[in-house]
């Protein structure tokens, strides 16, 4: 058969009978043939590849990756992943995607400076997720509103001493800290902010310090779910009941939060919605539907998910 006819079959394009298609597919299966997508993209002069950087140790980033795959496929794009790990920095992750000829980039919670991100956005279309960056397209949750909702939930239960475990310099940390302080001030509460972090180990360390101080708060609001899980583990192992003695709330609504033996109250981020908005914005840039100088800060509201780790304080 001619190369053109085989191409028609492999692309599932009109122009070949069913018997011909069956013969070609059987022959391809027998010899293990697969079309070369890179060669096809070279002929089309477009790769239709979207590059994605994310942190390999963040569960919420994994949820976003899944949503980005779904949204990109619906718009006819493929996704190339490049993870950031303790031994592979963000600059290396970006270089890999540029070498793969990705047409645009999505970066989840990037740690690069705003200046570096601005320079990157000047080179090719870029959308940042889970962080606000002036002069660059951004898609994020309203972290301030999420923190306010968490504090208001605890205040509504009757808690007055609410300790907030901060996320340091992580993307969204400044906004969540601001939301906590805003809600605490509105409720007339003393602000209690301590170093937290992004992992279970960070939460466990903070809980150990808290117990050693000898004065427990009514409730702990952790920067994210992983930090909250570390707090819960240390409290329970120390004979302190959750939520009877101390209520605990997290942020993200990770898969672990809803497990029957954890039941963590948390602030849910709409990962699927955030992913869809980010991909749509990037594709609009790739298709020339967005003026080069116009940038947008696209924000979606998080929601409170109440489970068994929060309850009214003991009378």
UniProtKB/TrEMBL annotation:
<dbReference type="InterPro" id="IPR010982">
    <property type="entry name" value="Lambda_DNA-bd_dom_sf"/>
</dbReference>
<protein>
    <submittedName>
        <fullName>LacI family transcriptional regulator</fullName>
    </submittedName>
</protein>
<dbReference type="Pfam" id="PF13377">
    <property type="entry name" value="Peripla_BP_3"/>
</dbReference>
<keyword id="KW-0805">Transcription regulation</keyword>
<feature type="domain" description="HTH lacI-type">
    <location>
        <begin position="1"/>
        <end position="44"/>
    </location>
</feature>
<keyword id="KW-0804">Transcription</keyword>
<keyword id="KW-0238">DNA-binding</keyword>
<dbReference type="GO" id="GO:0003700">
    <property type="term" value="F:DNA-binding transcription factor activity"/>
</dbReference>
<dbReference type="GO" id="GO:0000976">
    <property type="term" value="F:transcription cis-regulatory region binding"/>
</dbReference>
<dbReference type="InterPro" id="IPR046335">
    <property type="entry name" value="LacI/GalR-like_sensor"/>
</dbReference>
<dbReference type="InterPro" id="IPR000843">
    <property type="entry name" value="HTH_LacI"/>
</dbReference>
<dbReference type="InterPro" id="IPR028082">
    <property type="entry name" value="Peripla_BP_I"/>
</dbReference>
């Amino acid at each position: 058969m001619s190369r053109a006819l085989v191409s028609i079959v492999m692309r599932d394009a009109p122009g070949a009978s069913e018997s011909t298609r069956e013969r070609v597919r059987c022959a391809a299966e027998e010899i293990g043939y697969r079309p070369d997508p890179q060669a096809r993209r070279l002929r089309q002069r477009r790769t239709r590849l979207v590059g994605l950087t994310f942190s390999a140790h963040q569960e919420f980033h994994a949820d976003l990756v899944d949503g980005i795959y779904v949204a990109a496929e619906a718009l006819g794009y493929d996704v190339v992943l490049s993870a950031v790990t303790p031994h592979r920095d963000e600059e290396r992750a970006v270089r890999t995607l540029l070498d793969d000829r990705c047409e645009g980039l999505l970066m989840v919670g990037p740690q690069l400076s705003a200046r570096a991100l601005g320079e990157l956005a000047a080179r090719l279309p870029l959308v940042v997720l889970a962080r606000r960056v002036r002069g660059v397209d951004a898609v994020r949750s309203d972290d301030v509103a999420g923190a306010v909702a968490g504090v208001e939930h605890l205040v509504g239960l009757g808690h007055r001493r609410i300790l907030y475990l901060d996320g340091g310099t992580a993307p969204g940390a400044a906004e969540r800290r601001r939301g906590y302080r805003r809600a605490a001030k509105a409720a007339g509460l003393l602000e209690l902010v301590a170093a937290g972090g992004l992992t279970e180990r960070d939460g466990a360390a903070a809980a150990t310090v808290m117990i050693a101080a000898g004065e427990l708060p009514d409730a702990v609001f952790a920067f994210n779910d992983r930090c909250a899980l570390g707090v819960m583990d240390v409290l329970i192992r120390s004979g302190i009941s959750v939520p009877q003695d101390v209520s605990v709330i997290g942020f993200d609504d990770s898969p672990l939060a809803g497990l029957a033996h954890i039941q963590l109250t948390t602030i849910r981020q709409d990962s699927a919605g955030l992913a869809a908005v980010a991909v749509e914005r990037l594709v609009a840039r790739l298709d020339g539907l967005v003026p080069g100088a116009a940038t947008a800060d696209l924000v979606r509201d998080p929601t409170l998910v109440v489970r068994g780790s929060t309850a009214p304080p003991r009378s």
